[in-house]
Specification:
Blueprint: H1 7-10, H2 20-23, H3 25-28, H4 44-53, H5 59-71, H6 73-101, H7 105-114, H8 119-149, H9 153-162, H10 165-200, H11 203-208, H12 223-234, H13 239-247, H14 258-268, H15 272-299, H16 303-314, H17 318-353, H18 359-375, H19 382-407, H20 431-446, H21 452-456, H22 458-477, E1 499-501, E2 508-510, E3 514-517, E4 522-525, H23 526-531, H24 539-542
Antiparallel strand pairs: 1-2, 3-4
């Protein structure tokens, strides 16, 4: 039965007033909606620098060291490089789509085969990524505090959490400044230990290539070791989401900025993994060099191998410099983890609870959970945590990528990214189903149900199933679950920068962020549409509302 509203209800004045923190876009950063063109005031270079500042993390050092110490040089390094290729290839279409459409990873996932509510699962997957890596990076900063200042680890973990809050709370403006100002110091600190080794002990590089690990793997190639190491490295595939959270602020691509636009998107999007893979191999080298001095346990903690490498050049100030480098690195990455995690948690809870107190509250949620993981010693289970997580993360990224590069070009799904509740089914079995099936099969394989070989390569199994599953399900369902109804607001030739006043909150929003609302009998912004818990999706049955836009309807 169709719900009807009285004239008084339809003409009622705007009634929603957001909490002060949610209404302040300088802090909110369009966290649950399309990033308005008017807000994208940064150049491609600044956006790229800010996004790349987020990969300053030293967990790469620990991950690379863990892989090579476990599986030896040959298997470990090949695993790192192979994972980097997979991450780069899947990251290109995602980065380009987010930068072009002005949407974050969650909004992209909604329109790339998961549906409005189906993407809540990936919001949790992504949020868990930021929490896990915040805890790992915070643990590394706590280790630096302990070594340099004698601060107990539990207290150091708390300081590592508190120190990033001012930047993450104030959003893109503060983050961009911090990342730009700290970049020179970080680059100098990153390069220094390898320059010292190259000058003082160049023969160590050759010795490293014959390293057989600490667990008897040997220096030769092992398919099982390669697969297991690749699985750990592939856990970083979710990093493209953090890059996309900044790339959505890219200015509109024009004929004049086309080259710089693409250079920034490729460098700050999938390009992060080039430096990331180099850091993993570099971290493994430093751990190898320090192994005999600090022991295996401390060799996996980036601060100790780093300190041993720079001591010959810096002497008595080596510890101070090493600690400073670690702290700066961890502030840069954990600001990004806290910022991106707040977006994911906000997206999840806004759809589940129909409430949004503001992005900044979810910064506190993200940091609080990460702090708990630190205190429980998550760093000690690095390989197991990341190896398991990669099975789910790669299924998600594989499904989104398959929609962008296969389903959309073939016309199996809409060619544009539709993220608004008013036009989406709650769950699209194409992307959501592909991810669930791929994750379930790969996790079963990970625990050995299909033998040791598929256990080692379970993340790749997840990737293959997700990529094949998307076009197969799109054909089987004839793509009918992508859109619940036609988007009558997106019209050919329309001015995307033109603003329309939301009939609920009364604020103006650009055209891509507006839907036609049957309940309000007028335009509604995407966030008010999300938060409405009384309409019962009546727009699905009452049809489009005339907003006075051109008659040609071609999204």
């Amino acid at each position: 039965m169709t719900e009807t509203l009285s004239d008084a209800e339809k003409t009622a004045p705007p009634k929603r007033r957001y909490a002060p923190l949610a209404a302040n876009e300088n802090r909110e950063d369009y966290s649950l909606r399309f990033a308005a063109h008017s807000f994208r005031k940064w150049s491609p270079f600044v956006v790229a620098t800010t996004a790349l500042g987020g990969i300053a993390y030293l967990a790469d050092f620990a991950i690379g060291a863990s892989i090579v110490l476990s599986y030896g040089f040959t298997s470990g390094v090949l695993a790192i490089l192979a994972a980097a290729v997979v991450i780069f290839v899947t990251g290109v279409p995602i980065a380009a789509a987010c930068a072009k459409s002005g949407v974050d990873m969650d909004l992209l996932t909604r329109g790339a085969g998961f549906g409005y509510f189906g993407s809540t699962l990936t919001s949790l997957v992504y949020a868990s990524f930021t929490v896990i890596f915040f805890s790992l990076e915070g643990s590394i900063m706590g280790q630096a505090f302990e070594l340099a200042l004698g601060i107990p680890l539990p207290v150091g973990y708390l300081l590592a959490t508190l120190i990033v809050l001012p930047f993450a709370l104030y959003g893109m403006g503060a983050v961009a400044k911090m990342q730009t100002w700290t970049q020179p110091l970080w680059i100098a600190g990153l390069v220094l230990p390898f320059v010292v080794v190259l000058v003082r002990a160049p023969g160590k590089f050759a010795e490293f290539t014959h390293f057989g690990g600490t667990e008897g793997a040997g220096a030769g190639f092992s398919a099982i070791g390669f697969g297991l190491g690749m699985g750990v490295a592939l856990s970083l595939i979710g990093q493209i989401g953090e890059q996309a959270d900044y790339l959505r602020f890219m200015p509109e691509k024009t004929a004049e900025n086309k080259r710089s636009w693409w250079a920034a998107v490729l460098a700050a999007g999938p390009g992060w993994v080039i430096l990331g893979a180099a850091k993993q191999i570099g971290g493994a080298l430093l751990a190898f060099l320090a192994l005999g001095v600090v022991g295996k346990a401390h060799a996996l903690e980036p601060i100790a191998p780093y300190l041993e490498a720079v001591k010959p050049a810096l002497g008595p100030v080596a510890l101070t410099f090493a600690a400073l480098f670690v702290v700066v690195s961890q502030i840069k990455i954990n600001t990004t983890n806290a910022y991106s995690g707040s977006l994911s948690f906000a997206n999840f809870f806004s759809r589940v609870l129909h409430r949004h107190p503001g992005r900044v509250w979810y910064v506190l949620v993200n940091c609080g959970i990460a702090l708990a993981l630190m205190e429980f010693g998550a760093f000690g289970f690095l390989n197991k945590i990341l190896g398991f997580y990669s099975n789910v993360a790669i299924a998600w990224i594989g499904a989104v990528c398959a929609d962008l590069v296969i389903a959309k070009p073939l016309g199996l799904s809409p060619r544009y990214i539709e993220f608004k509740r008013a036009y989406l089914h709650k769950i699209n079995p194409v992307g959501f189903g592909s991810m669930v099936v791929a994750s379930a099969v790969s996790i079963v394989a990970y625990f050995g149900a299909f033998g040791p070989f598929l256990a080692a390569f379970s993340p790749l199994l997840a990737l293959v199933i997700a990529i094949v599953g998307v076009p197969a399900l799109a054909v089987a369902t004839r793509g009918k679950y992508y859109l619940a109804r036609e988007n009558t607001v997106a019209v050919a030739g329309a001015d995307l920068r033109a603003t329309h006043t939301c009939s609920v909150c009364g604020d103006p929003y650009e055209l891509p962020d507006v839907a036609d609302c049957a309940k309000q009998d007028g335009p509604i912004c995407s966030l008010c549409c999300t938060l409405d818990d009384t309409c019962h999706d009546m727009c699905r049955t009452t049809g489009p509302v005339d907003l006075g836009l051109p008659a040609a309807r071609t999204p």
